[in-house]
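Table 4 source record.
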Amino acid sequence: MEIEKKRFKTMFPNLAEEMENKQCQVAISSIRSDDQTGEHASSKRFDGYVPDAIDFIRRCDNEKQAEEIINFLENRNEINNAYAQRLKKQLREKGVRSFGPKKQDDYYSREGIV
């Protein structure tokens, strides 16, 4: 659909201004004609990402679950005692949501992993 610039500005003044000022730009690095290839490429966001203690705590529903996670990670030497104590203190004083909003089961698929 072709539309002349003047008419476009009249119909969509804010959008026209954004386009002229190059505000809110989104870079397009490539175009894929194959859906599977595109989905695979877009899932690279978390490639090599290793969840940390906070990621696991954010999946918890309550403080008891979070404390179990902290103890588990400490017992496996994935976090040291000092860090475990800091996490437990924050958990006691501020609650489980102080670590961030709850990560739902489909968090990584919605955020970039397919």
